[in-house]
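Submission sheet (multi-component)
Chains listed below:
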Amino acid sequence: MTLSRRTFVQTAGIGAGAALTSSIWGRGRENSIWSAIEPDLQAVERGVICIASNENPVGPGKAVLDTLRSLLEGGTRPGRYSNQAGQLTEAIAAHFKVKPENVLVSEGSTEILRAATQVFTSKTKALVGTIPTYEECAGYAELIGHPVKGVSLDSAFKIDLDKMAAAAKGAGLVFYCNPNNPTATYVGAKATRGFLAKMSSSSPDTTILIDEAYFDYVTNPDHETHIPVAVENPRVIVARTFSKAYGMAGLRQGYAIAHPDTIKALRPWVASGGTGSLNVFGMAAATVAIAQDSTFTTNERNRNKAVRDMVTKWFSDRGMKPTDCQANFMFVDIGTPAKAFREACRAKGVMVARDFPPFEKTHARITLGTMEEMTKAVQVFGEVLGKKTSTAAA
Amino acid sequence: MSVSRRGFLQGLRLGQNAHAAAFLAARGHEELMAEAQQGRQGGARMSRPNLPPGVEGIRISSNENPLGPGKAAIDAILGKFPEANRYPFNSTPLDADLEILIAKLNSAKRENVVLGVGSQELLKNAARVFLSPTKHLVIPSPTYGDPAGFAQNLMKVTLKTAPVAEKTLRTDLSALLPHVKGAGLVYLCNPNNPTATINSAQEIKDFIAEVKKQSPTTAILIDEAYCDYATDPSFQTAIPIAITTPGVVVARTFSKAYGMAGVRIGYALGDTATIKKMSAYRMPYNVNTFGVAAAVASLKDPQHIKEESARNKAVRDFTVKALADMGYTSTDSQTNFIFADIGKTMTAAAFREGCAAKGVMVGRDFPPLEKQWARISLGTMEEMQKATDVFRSVLKPGATTSSGKGQ
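Outcome: structure written.
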């Protein structure tokens, strides 16, 4: 049963945490969703446009793939397993001008999200996150029996900082996904800094995990990373991933940047533990990717923005309003259930729009593919939504 | 996308498999984990011996397949380049396809299978499912240390151990039984690391039945990392028991005979309810897509594993005989490493240092047997021919560790 957003806020106390996550957040692992949709488990067939999982449609780029190729061909002798994790850690540290002890590499950022939830929440210290947001922390808190508090977004689908600060008082961990998945909205750097300062005084023992997965796609001028705060403040962690702008979702590489004491607390819960149990392709690729100059991410941001502008205009011209999108996906009020939209699009070769309660009856999350893919996709949207709209109007 | 795919494939198909294989085998992982474990426990950090300048090292310390994966696996990886940007659930093959293939090969259902980032994730997740501060862990001593380290350090779990059998160094299952009452989990490694020995299928079957009788809620995790190297016909996988017995799990890895330690793919099988519990702790999208493709291709090429097992057995027979000719016995190795009794001449530490000075890296200490027993992983035949020459000079009574460079 779908509850209204208001009902969620009312029921989202500590006691209601488990019920909340099982009905909302715990539901949404992307793989289980797609498995449920496609019980025959066929891999994405040729020609299908996959705009369902916020992947970079272009991939990691030539420099990265050339490195993997040379390693496989033996053009360069790869370092030992251990050195690869160390080299990746150092490359990340150098890129952000922090120390290696500020960096913890991991199997995707998923592992960082889990480790932070493990370490900083407890039976009496809740996880706090927005409804909706990326589900991993809440799903994991539920798994280990730690309470979860949900906080509704503001009317623009952005994180409501006042509500968040109030809910976070005495909490163990705040999951602060910015830009937020699935709503694509972004809280400016100045406001986030204010929130962090406020938390330091109103709830100094609460840790804030800032998930900057979509950082490189933000075009809002009030934009900066919170890594400088994280390396100073033991209560702030920044999580990053190579799965989005860097185009390496298949290679499972992520990392945390934080104060050395915080890294030390997280480390035992992360498989790499700094000892190099990450896969060698991913480590080699990520090491090259992060060492590239900013041209790579700038180009990817610009490529994405052009697509985003086209798709935003397409929806706006048809009276469907996306949120203020600062990511490589959009959250659009299509006025019809995501499920019907998803199934109709899938029948026409477009994979898109899983459910994001409590908005699944009206909103669809649409990942931005290439311009070519999106030009085809909006045609499909037009066919699908055109029919729906006329049916609804009749 | 199709253009770049073609370009990569043309550039790669004829690549040098040996180099690719070395990259993927990514040797040296296991000892690093052990080092991290010791570091976490606050002990002295174990540093890997430095090789003398200019010496091309022979690394026979971490039980990896020296040749890496077969051609089918490498080709599968090369085919994945255009899909590096896709999550495992949007990729070709899907992570689910690997689960289904593993299920089929074991006459099981997909619900009997869970994938892990190597078997490491699975061993930890079994600990998380079955252990708590009030439900202890039972293990033979010595055995592979990861599950016990994790359980003790991060879960405050009590450990109960029983020594391996005195002469054979086989896991003494009857000695474990007195500890199982009320235990959360019994961990067995079969074949066992570091002792290289097996317990027969019948012994394992009887043990499981006895544990279930004496302590029905106690789970049993059997780590079969080295199973593809066992040649004794009395060894059989416990997977058929696991998929039909609640609370029995078998863990496998692609890091050993499949030669893909750097690829990080493992899997576990058990009955559906047990696997469901394990799956709850599985990280979403945990396995990398290149690894999934390589694993699928490898499983479809069973001949390669047969050949790898035969290759290893020849090297094993040679190495065991070489040591026997020097007067040192080894346990009955059913793995890609041997456990040799060098105690009458030196400790494992002295042996390790002596060998390292000549460019050969052998296994770390395995308490409580480190004064007498040394673990030697099996490299290629060529490597072991050189390595046994080094052993001969190092183990020579009165030998010092500073005599000339090894080859």
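Remark: Chain A touches chain B through 62 residues (CB under 8 Å).
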